[in-house]
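Dear Dr. K.,

Following up on our conversation at the group meeting, I've run the structure prediction for EKC/KEOPS complex subunit GON7 from Ascodesmis nigricans. I'm pasting the input sequence below exactly as I used it, so you can double-check it against your construct before we proceed with anything downstream. Let me know if the numbering doesn't match what you have in your notebook.
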Amino acid sequence: MHLKTFRTAPPYPTSAACPAVHLPTTIMPPLPAEQATAVYTSPLPPPSDSKIFTYQLPEAISDTTRLGILKEVVEKLQADVNAYLTERMEEEKQAELAAGKKGQVREEEEEEENYGEEVVEED
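The predicted structure tokens came back this morning:
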């Protein structure tokens, strides 16, 4: 990084009440390509999984365009994470069925079907 300070007289008039202010100018190297990243980490103890979802953002665009693209990318990241979690739930359900926990899986399915509804059990 290079720091450049100007020490010449200002090109405009100054007074004692408003002295010239010399601000350093910093020249920054070009930024790497921007990306939006979402990281899912399972709350289960190891061996648990984690997954990284990444989208590259276009370079040299206006702030307004960047915000629009960022909104779209966030929606895509949410959809990707949801699809991944749905896939993992199906895999876990199949593994439970294979392990002989069929009754528990059926109870969970009924609970999902009746979520938010009052269930009257027949005697």
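Two things stood out to me. The helical segments are 63-98, 102-113. The mean pLDDT is 73.

Best regards,
J.T.
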